[in-house]
Amino acid sequence: MNSAAETKHVPVPNTTIKPKSRDSKSIYSIQNFSLWYGSDQALYDVQFDIPANNVTAIIGPSGCGKSTFIKALNRMVELVPSVKMLGSINYNGKDIFSPKYKVEELRTNVGMVFQNPNPFPKSIYENVAYGPKIHGIKKKKVLDEIVEKSLKGAALWDEVKDRLQENAFGLSGGQQQRLCIARCLAIEPDVILMDEPTSALDPISTAKIEELVQKLKEDYSIVIVTHNMQQAARISDKTAFFLNGEVIEYSNTDELFSNPEDKRTEDYITGRFG
Ligand SMILES: Nc1ncnc2c1ncn2[C@@H]1O[C@H](COP(=O)(O)OP(=O)(O)OP(=O)(O)O)[C@@H](O)[C@H]1O
Questions:
Q1: Does ipTM surpass 0.90 in this model?
Q2: 3-state DSSP percent of the chain in helix, strand and coil, to 5
Q3: 72 lines ligand 1 (CB under 6 A)
Q4: Is 208 a pocket residue for ligand 1 (Cβ < 6 Å)?
Q5: What is the CATH classification number for the domain harbouring 198?
Q6: Which segments carry the region annotation Disordered (predicted)?
Q7: Ligand 1: which atom is nearest the Cα of residue 38?
Q8: Total structural domains within the chain
Q9: DSSP-derived secondary structure for 129-197
């Protein structure tokens, strides 16, 4: 085992080389971030900035560390007891792994949407009102407004406004995924992390989510893991290509897809492997 892995987390000073794409404010800055599951290293020296109000796509073959990376951004990865990390991830200028950092700050500012829609076994209304209620909002009028605004934000309102008290499981898969996005919007996050949000959906539902992502970036910063390179090319502004736990290339999406710098990126995007 690398001796660095013995340490739960060691921050590094803010003196690392900056990635080339830095044309807007960064919401995350990742510096020399490595991660181990027990003695198996899953991420190696990951280093790039994630810009605000952009869609950043994470692509790469199965097992290259995409999900691990996105789950590090909200510290969900720590739920695996054997995890050890080195380096730092700054969110809004603060190291999220610093002992002083309050994880609640991440939980309220960073929402997550998963591969399979996972609504609660509750009504459509309660699914969206749940987070605000946990945050202490009790007035029905305020909750009604949040529910309407969030469902509109997730482009679902028109389809469900007359059936808000019905069970969320009665919605189609694509509607359930948009409900999960509405649930995320209800807590007014800055960032939405999406881990393959359309891989369980049909092409029409996928197109709706892609259109929605484009709209959401006006107000949110979005990081999306996707296996689908066409999707990354269609909807993202920046793309990071991961391979065997390393970031091989990080660039503007149109540059990475039209003129990749690294042969391995070229091989992957042209379907030679993965
Ligand atoms: N909870 C865990 N415990 C141990 N090892 C894990 C765990 N989660 C992931 N790994 C390992 O970490 C590596 C990266 O996995 P990860 O799920 O992040 O890859 P991925 O790129 O998201 O893959 P996929 O596209 O198949 O979802 C893999 O070798 C995987 O086996």
A1: yes
A2: 35, 25, 35
A3: no
A4: no
A5: 3.40.50.300
A6: 1-21
A7: 4
A8: 1
A9: HHHHHHTT---HHHHHHHHHHHHHHTT-HHHHTT-TTSBGGGS-HHHHHHHHHHHHHTT--SEEEEEST
